[in-house]
Write a structure and sequence with these properties.
Mean pLDDT: 95
CATH architecture of the largest domain: 2-Layer Sandwich
Largest sheet: 7 strands, mixed
CATH superfamily of the largest domain: Dihydrodipicolinate Reductase, domain 2
CATH topology of the largest domain: Dihydrodipicolinate Reductase, domain 2
Order of helices and strands: EHEHHEHEHHEHEHEHEHEEHEEEH
CATH class of the largest domain: Alpha Beta
Structural class: alpha/beta
Low-confidence stretches: none
Oligomer: single chain
Strand order of the largest sheet: 8-9-7-10-13-12-11
Helix content: 25-40%
Strand content: 15-25%
Radius of gyration: 20 Å
Number of domains: 2
Shape: globular
Number of helices: 12
Amino acid sequence: MEQEIKVAIYGATGYTGVELLNILLKHPRVKIVGLTSQSHVGKRLKEVFPFLEGPVGNLKITSDAEEEYDLAFLCLPHEESLELVPKLLNQGKKVIDLSGAYRIKNPQIYPEYYGFQHKYPKILERAVYGLPEIYRERIRNAQLVANPGCYPTSVLLALYPLIIERVKIEKVVITSLSGVSGAGRKPVQHFHFPEMYGDFFAYSLDKHRHVPEMESVIKEIGEVNILLRFSPVVVPTSRGMLSSLSIFCDKVEAKELYNETYKNEKFVRIVLEPPHVKHVLGTNLCLLYSFWDERVKCLQVISVIDNLGKGASSQAVQNFNIMFGFEEDLALNTVPSFP
């Protein structure tokens, strides 16, 4: 009999939680045994989402997972994950945390960028950053995987070939456009439909919490300090992400380098024209396009992902597959709904 992994999803009714449910329901080696949500305790899942029927639809939502399980997916606010992770690890559970609570190794970063003191530096040391194309071997034996943020996923995959090739980089200027779902499901006034429709705007230009996450990974894999000028922009669409990187560096044959770096990767594809966000919606894909601008001596790289997919839930399932020795694309071999 094939191995069946029992999982619990904490925060199952948020956008990343529902996306995760949708993927795991297609996974032949997963049994969902626990769902939590502070806003819907006591309801059955199908009462909250009528499109989810069958055994999982009949599962009752609780404040804490009550059944025995092997791995927990945490789709929770950072502060909640911070406190829950140590408890689950002490119980011998494997954990994939989709919050930012364990992504950055330096605990001194958290008060400034996250607004709380990190009380668990030893667990931070154990956490493995869950970007498979970079940290696959570490993920295999991890008990705690810190799933990357959506912005860092799009940016780091665009920079990784240059970093490992030791290309001399002077500076990197990034503008990333994200669908509104990246802000979560909780209502916020400026994401309210009448205000968001027909509008788009930049935010957190001076101090975005994903900047130290990206810079720390770059430093670890390349042993180099590269400061990023990062501008996130929210656009009036529900999901999807496009990052445009202007990389001022030594001239490099980027297309050859990127094709060589990612030739064995199932989810990173090098394309010949600037990709559209609709090319990746509902998938675990990252599409990369590069162009060398000789006039200004700059490499332009365009990276597109689904912020709820490769930027969150489907990447979490990719990490899950690696941790349990399954084929990496199990339940993830999907194509986008197009147009």
